[in-house]
Amino acid sequence: MSALRQVLTPENFAKVQPGMMMEDVRKMLGKPMRVIPYQLKKETYYNWRWLDDSGNTSKIFSAVMDSNLRVLRTEIMLDPDDTNNGMSNNNR
């Protein structure tokens, strides 16, 4: 390995566009932390966890794929598993 760089950034997330193939998203962002299929909707969420620019807030970037593994849309939300975000199951 010659260099280590952070690929989970808002700039790279903005490059993920509807119609992109999952293979291209994986090349850009690496392996997702979680894959969640919704069979009735024929959609699959591929999620990556990252820290915002402050380094204090954990967030989730989701690329929502159709059954042909093409991006339908993307979403960013606070990480519900991060107790520092006030959204964990213990605080609900």
Question: Nutshell version of this structure?
Answer:
The chain is of the alpha+beta class and 92 residues long.
Explain what you see:
There is one protein chain. Helices cover 15% and strands 33% of the residues. It is α+β, with helices and mostly antiparallel strands and 92 residues long. It has a single domain, classed as 2-Layer Sandwich (Beta-lactamase Inhibitory Protein, Chain:B, domain 1), CATH 3.30.1450. It has a 4-stranded antiparallel beta sheet with strand order 1-2-3-4, with helices on one face. It is globular and about 35 Å long. The protein starts with 9 loop residues before the first helix and ends in a 14-residue tail after the last strand. The model is unreliable at 88-92 (pLDDT under 50).
Number of domains: 1
Indicate the structural class: alpha+beta
Task: Please state the average pLDDT score.
Answer: 89
- Backbone CA Rg: 14 Å
Count helical runs: 2
> Major β-sheet, in short?
4 strands, antiparallel
Assembly form of the protein: single chain
| Molecular shape | globular
Strand portion: 25-35%
Classify the helix fraction into a percent range.
10-25%
The CATH topology turns out to be Beta-lactamase Inhibitory Protein, Chain:B, domain 1
- Give the beta-strand count: 4
CATH architecture name: 2-Layer Sandwich
Question: Stretches where pLDDT falls below 50 for ≥5 residues?
Answer: 88-92
The helix/strand series, from N terminus to C terminus, equals HHEEEE
